[in-house]
Write a structure and sequence with these properties.
Order of helices and strands: EHHHEHHHEEEHHHHHEHE
Shape: globular
Distance between the termini: 7 Å
Structural class: mainly alpha
Number of domains: 1
Region (Disordered): 33-57
Strand content: 5-15%
Strand order of the largest sheet: 3-4-5
Helix content: 40-55%
Largest sheet: 3 strands, antiparallel
Number of helices: 12
Biased composition (Basic and acidic residues): 34-55
Length: 266
Amino acid sequence: MRLGFKKGGLGFQEVDRVWNGVGWYLQVTMGKPKKSDAKRKEKPKQKEEESDSKNQGHVFRCLPKTVATMFDYLKDHPAKLNLVNQMGFGALSHLQNNNLDQVMLKQIYNRFDIHDNTIHSNAASVKTTTRKIGDALGLCSTGMTTVNLTEMVQTTLVDTEDNRKRFIRAFMLWIQKVFLLPNSTSTIVPNALTTIIDLETTAKRNWALHVQNFLIQELKKAKQTNSAAIHGCVYALMIIYFHETQFGENSKEPEARKPWIRLKKD
């Protein structure tokens, strides 16, 4: 299965072939580049090679395939799926059941500037914001801020109010552990635990800011310590970058509708 974008643009396979080159000269059909992009100096090839070599051991903990598998299960359990939709996570059902391309994520990570939260490349400079993370993943980006989870989500009944709350708490912790706030340990990060205190405000919570704060914090930590394990939802950065280099920042085209993870299938 090949995932594509707007007609005339680059699909994932084409982007992958371009990114396998050291220079990462991503060409997209955006018209004329902005002046600020045109003036950006290309980094020497030697530095590109050193950077790519230096980060070969990076492991990204964001697991969209695991989320897609869970939603495949939930489709056969409409009562649980309905609760997930009510919580505001229904858009994640658009995630594809395939593995992330580590080369793509490494290139996004290498070119993410922790000082201005921007992805800089030869094609464009794409700034990351809470709104864009919300648009990319279909999460709420306004409002409030703040064992075995997979088995619990799948085995918990939703026939009573107590079981319903138990399922909601289990799913909220699970989706944060494997995708929204992933880390390399077997424990749940404290940021995730605070979200299950008040279940009535789940759908109103600013999940995009929740994801962004953890992601930026972990990217800064990884770059400053040269950590091999990259925590946080780097997948969101990749979706934001692809969307803006393909459609621009405020496109009204039908193909650019939210959530941005709603990728076309050929």
